[in-house]
Amino acid sequence: MKKLSFLIIALVTVLFAGCVSHPQIDKEFEAFLYPSESYIPQTFDWQPVAPGISRFDFSNPAFPVIYHAVRIELTTSGLQLLSFPDKAFAMKKTGAKEGEKIPQPFIYHSITTKNFARKNKCVVAVNATPFTGKNGKWDLVAHISATRQLVGVHITEGCEIAAPVNQYAALLFSKDEQGYLASIIDSQNQADLQNCEYAFGGFYTVLSDGQLIDFAYRSHDSRTGCGISKDGRILYIMVAEGEVQNKSEGLSFPQCAEIFKAMGCDSALEFDGGGSTQLCINEKSVLTYNKSRVQGNSFGFVLNKQ
Questions:
Q1: Does residue 19 register a pLDDT over 90?
Q2: Where is 55: in which H helix or E strand?
Q3: What is the rounded CA–CA span in Å between residue 206 and residue 226?
Q4: Is the pTM of this model over 0.90?
Q5: What mean pLDDT is reported for the chain?
Q6: CA 186, CA 242: separation in Å to the nearest integer?
């Protein structure tokens, strides 16, 4: 009987967690109710985490809002980018040989960002691309299982694991003698993806060439996003909490863009947010609440000894 009760409670939790109403907010009303000083500090006090990596945490009970950010110098010696799914996993899952394309749609059993971080001993790990369940829907089966297919591009080690979705943006990484070089594209088109070593699809660009992108629809929710410096050598990751709304109601896309710009970003995009939002530092979640959702994919960084 106790086991049955536990299963019922777990099912209800899965169904309703993250399903809190996020009403649309008018642009002028948002500006009046949440002035920028309520979520952008005068200075960002970056605290060291590891060589080339630092963090910043912000909270304002009056908003209320809590968000966490990481700053990564992509030219740091020994820095290595990892992802899940990776090339070896996809090839083994599909039976594809070296040089062959991964059959689409690529459907697989995923792991949480937290487990990805622990397995690879990541200094930083974050969730990325939107996803659905096996049948292409976000339904009850998708909620309670870990079977995933990505809605957007996922390239790792030059291998395309998930196909591009033209209307969405993506974060790209290439590598040269200085280290990693990041860029953001507004549309996941094949021409821009030709020479990248890694690509992670998201939703939309929110900051481009230092200019904020306007959105007619605004709502506050949990957010995961990344921004880059003008030269593409510094990566900023930010997650906003929004699952416990009396503690932090999250941010809108334009508010995220303002924060990224204030940090020093030239471009930024938003990844999958809501109940998928997750950021781990030194293998531990930075969120103030526990997460049970299995994300579609994750990427992160480790520091190899030189």
A1: no
A2: strand 53-60
A3: 10
A4: yes
A5: 92
A6: 25
Residues 6+ apart with CB under 8 A from 60: 38, 39
Which spans in 37-139 are helix H? 87-94, 113-120
Task: Look at the block and give the residue holding tokens 């963090």.
Answer: 55
In the chain, the amino acid numbered 153 is V
C-alpha atoms less than 13 angstroms from C-alpha of 60 in its C-beta half-sphere: 16
How big is the chain by its Cα radius of gyration, in Å?
Answer: 19
Instruction: Please tell me whether the peptide bond between 164 and the residue prior to it is cis, using omega within 30 degrees of 0.
Output: no
Pairing of strands 279-281, 267-270: unpaired
Closest CA to 84 of 126, 136, 53: 126
Tens of pLDDT, residue by residue over 213-258, are: 999 889 999 999 999 999 999 999 999 999 999 999 999 999 999 9
- Taking alpha carbons only, the member of 301, 294, 297, 277 closest to residue 112 is 294
The Cα-based distances of 173 to 87, 199, 299 in angstroms read 15, 6, 11
CB 114 within 8 A of CB 289: no
DSSP secondary structure letters along 204-253: -EEEETTEEPP-SS---B-EEEEEE-TTS-EEEEEEE--SSTTT---B-H
3-state secondary structure of 187: coil
The predicted-structure confidence for 21-72, as pLDDT tens digits, reads as follows: 588 888 999 999 999 999 999 999 999 999 999 999 999 999 999 999 999 9
